[in-house]
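WARN retry 2 of 3 for item q-0093 after timeout on previous attempt; input resubmitted unchanged.
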Amino acid sequence: MKTKGFSLVELIVVIVIFGLFISLNVANFFRQKEAKSLEGALSSTRSFISSLRQSSVVNLVPTSEVITDFKGYGFVTNSTDNKITSRYFDAGGSTNLQPFALSQFKNITLVSPSANTTVYFQKSTGLLLDSLDNPTTVKIILKNSTLDKCSSLSISQKGIITTNENEDCPE
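OK item q-0093 returned
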């Protein structure tokens, strides 16, 4: 006489298959979450820098300070502190404004430029200049340490910002 139902072996095989399927999807989910974190950090960094350029182009001078011969807005990269600090530049030098902390993004670090780099967008033109008023370019590389994946922002001398989501990570 046969009984209806599944054998213990059949149930175990089905449970193992489901377990494998779930574990593969969970790993993929976390990989996608980390990739989105890097994309979000790159997008936010681009917006932060674009707003500095736009403020320079429209000649938006800070009203809270006494400024002589406003030159524009720029930033300083600091890979040690994992942040980019906005500044305004005038005849007297530069003054720090608002820091943009990359630590707000999980597992994201600023890997390049490794040394502090100071640049600004010239008022009205938006050209990218170094602290000695020479035209320059900058490449900012962000790294997701969990995925060991990098993305970059490149800023041309004309102040045009381009992104590369598949940048080679520096050693």
